[in-house]
Amino acid sequence: METFQSNPWTNIDDKYKAIVQLPKFLKHMSALTGMIVVKKQEGAIKGSGFIHKIRKVSGSDCPCHTCLLNTEPKKQVYAILTVTTVLHTFDKKWDVALESGVFSENWEPKNTTVRLFYDTDDEAQEIFIYGYNLLETDKEINIHSDWCSVECVTHDMELVQKLEAKLEKYMELQGEIYRKSKELRLNDLVIIIGHPHGGPKMISVGKHKQFRVEILKEVRNYQQWCRYKYDNITCCGNSGSPIFILGQPLCGFGYWFGHPHNHSKGLHEKAKGGCSSVGVEHVVM
C-alpha cells in the first residue's frame, strides 16, 4: 500500500494512463474517505468509511449527542452525512445481527466519530463528523453482506459545502471513467482507499477476475446484489474502505439500491487478497 501525495499513478499499470481522469477521481475519492473510530470499553475500534450522501437541514433541532445534552438552544442548521462502511466495525457479532435483524444494543452515537482528511501523520488540524444513527443493513436470508451505513452530523457548513463539491465531482468523473473503460475494454483494476491500522490514508492497487464476481441476487430494475474478490493488500483498519472497480456499472448513490462496495475482509493470513461487502450494480445486457 502507498500514499499518493506525490505520484497519483503509484503502482497503477501504464495501460490505465489513457484514463486521464483517474488521478483526479482518486483524489476526490480520498477526500470522501474517513477513518471511523468506535469507542468501546476494551478500547477504540478503527475502520474506514465513505461519504456517499449529504443532506442539509434547517429549521429543526440538531439530533447530535452534543446538542441533545446541551441546555443551550439547539443548532437549527446542520447537515447529515451518510457514511457507508461494514457492520463488523460496530458489532463483532455482525453475522448474528444479520440473522436476527437486530443490531447490538450497546451501540451509542456518542461513541462513534469519523475523522476526515487524515492523510499524513503531521496533520495540523483534526476534523471530525459525529455519528448519531446506525442505519439498517442489506438483510437477506443466506446472504452475509456485512454492509451498513452510519449517519453523521456536523454544524460546519463550510465543510459541508466543500464535501458536496467533491461528491458531485466524484460522481461526474465516475461516469466519465466508466465510459472510457468500455471504450478501452479495461475492467480489471481495483483500488481501495482506507486507513490501515488506524493510520493515515493509503491506497491499495490490485485486480479482480471476472470469475471472482459473485452474483448473489437479482433485484428490481435490472440490478443485482454482488460481491467481489480481489488481490489487493489490506490490513486491519481497512474494513469499510471504499472500493473503486474499473468498468463496474454502478446504480448511483441511493440508500439501499445503488450503494457501491466496501472492503469487508482479507482472505489469507498474509493479507494478500480480500472480499468486498455486498454492493448493487446494473445488469448489463
Write the layout of secondary structure elements.
Elements: H1 22-31, E1 33-40, E2 43-58, H2 65-69, E3 77-86, H3 94-100, E4 112-116, E5 127-134, E6 147-154, H4 157-184, E7 189-194, E8 202-207, E9 213-219, E10 223-233, E11 243-245, E12 263-266, E13 272-276, E14 279-282
Antiparallel strand pairs: 1-2, 1-4, 2-3, 3-6, 4-5, 5-6, 7-8, 7-11, 9-10, 10-13, 10-14, 12-13
Helix pairs in contact: 1-4
Question: Which CATH architecture of the domain at 33-162 would you pick?
Answer: Beta Barrel
DSSP strand count: 14
Question: Structural class, from helix and strand content?
Answer: alpha+beta
Strand order of the largest sheet: 1-2-3-6-5-4
Span between termini: 35 Å
Radius of gyration: 18 Å
Helix content: 10-25%
- The succession of helices and strands, N to C, reads HEEHEHEEEHEEEEEEEE
Number of helices: 4
Mean pLDDT: 82
Shape: globular
CATH topology-level name of the domain at 33-162: Thrombin, subunit H
Instruction: Specify the biggest β-sheet.
Output: 6 strands, antiparallel, barrel
